[in-house]
Amino acid sequence: MSHSYSQNRLHVVFSTKERQKLIAPQMQPKLWSYMGGIARNHDFLVLANGGIEDHVHLLVQLPPTLALAKAILLLKANSSKWMKEHGIRFG
Length: 91
Fold this sequence. Notes:
Blueprint: E1 8-15, H1 28-41, E2 45-52, E3 55-62, H2 68-85
Helix pairs in contact: 1-2
């Protein structure tokens, strides 16, 4: 019987539009937690996350059925919407 095992761990970095300092230090822990929730809701993991005012670092673990592009789209779109809901002009 054939068995396969896949573990896709990726370090992802993305910045705010034009590297503007839009992620305030007091908002960062909330944003990192929210991004972890986005991942859980879409059946993948954020193993570590962090960053500063103008960019985000994520260590994600993706299942073989989820494309990296789709995972990033989910994270960026949902976190951007969440930041806008909290009154931060975010792009």
